[in-house]
Amino acid sequence: MLKLEYNAKLGRVIRMDDIDTIGRSTYAMLEDAFTAGRTEEALALSDYYLKELRIMHDILMTWAQDIIRFMIVRDANAAQPTAQALSAAICKAWRDFEFGVAPLRRLQAAIREGDIGRASDALERLWLEFKIPHDVLVAWINEMLNYLSKTTEQHVLDSILETHQSIWGDRYATWDQMTPWEKVALTVEGMRGHLSGASRKGDVIVREEDDRFVIAFDPCGTGGVLRRGDPETGRPAYRTDGVNREAHDWTWGKVGVHWYCSHCAIAMEWLPGRRRGHPLRPLDHTLDHQAPCVWYIYKDESQTRAYHYPRTGLTKPT
């Protein structure tokens, strides 16, 4: 059941649906609403959908800009203010361009007029305005991290640690005050916004076990599509040599991990495990590009299963 609600811990509206609908794309929920004539619900969902997509776009842009700044400081020996100004100028259009705003206006006008066909066309255009740059940004980030790795792979870790607070630290600032289901809602929102699932509309698999919630993507809309290709268009996997060649605790002790995907090990397991004693949101990474990506949210983090710890060099607290 759809529950579009204000959440005080996040300071904004988020979908807090029941387990039967939370993994269903906002695109599909919105389409259902205006097709059925639920005008007010459709208008509220349309505003939220743009925000859901924009949040992930802005995260990718923050990350790209931070990598560029890191490279300018490292390679040109520039001062931080100069590097910040240059990286901001390079990324300005990506940040300022009003992706989705004009389609949203057309979509909302069509919803109010009850024109289902025009609403469907506008919704598709809104989605596409984010999908195409989204996939380019993911590949761009992978290539910039690959460039950093050529001198030493440590530079990838250093770069991600430098951008950690502005992306993951801020997003999960109230994580420890959240209920397990609020954590699920925030996690699933992110991966809907990252256009996961075979349709690329943002479908996520969510199920409950006794001690944890299981969240899966088939494929993940970022690293999964980079590695597997786009099931919606048939575009093949992105051609790149941008994978690690040395095993690290922050790549789950593996080689062949795409540089984009390494941030999951760092931001969700390696770094929080060292700061908090437990992984924040562990996952089962696999080098099989056709396999789903599976994440876990534990109802009690102190009960996180032991197998999550050693692969990023952690020891489960006693």
Measured on Cα atoms, how large is the radius of gyration? 20 Å
- What amount of the residues lies in strands? 5-15%
Summarize the biggest pleated sheet.
4 strands, antiparallel
Helix segment tally: 9
Shape: globular
Describe the protein.
This protein is an alpha+beta fold. The chain has a domain at 4-15 and 59-85 and 134-312. 53% of the residues lie in helices and 8% in strands. The protein contains nine helices and six strands. The strands form two sheets. A four-stranded antiparallel beta sheet has the order 3-4-6-5. The protein is globular.
Question: Outline of this structure?
Answer:
By secondary structure, the chain is an alpha+beta fold. It has a domain at 4-15 and 59-85 and 134-312.
Topology, please?
Layout: E1 4-7, E2 12-15, H1 26-35, H2 39-76, H3 80-96, H4 101-113, H5 116-149, H6 154-171, H7 180-193, E3 205-208, E4 212-217, H8 223-228, H9 259-276, E5 283-284, E6 293-298
Antiparallel strand pairs: 1-2, 3-4, 4-6, 5-6
Helix pairs in contact: 1-2, 1-5, 2-3, 2-4, 2-5, 2-6, 2-7, 4-5, 5-6, 6-9
Which descriptors apply to this entry?
single chain, 318 residues, alpha+beta, 4-stranded antiparallel β-sheet, two-stranded antiparallel ribbon
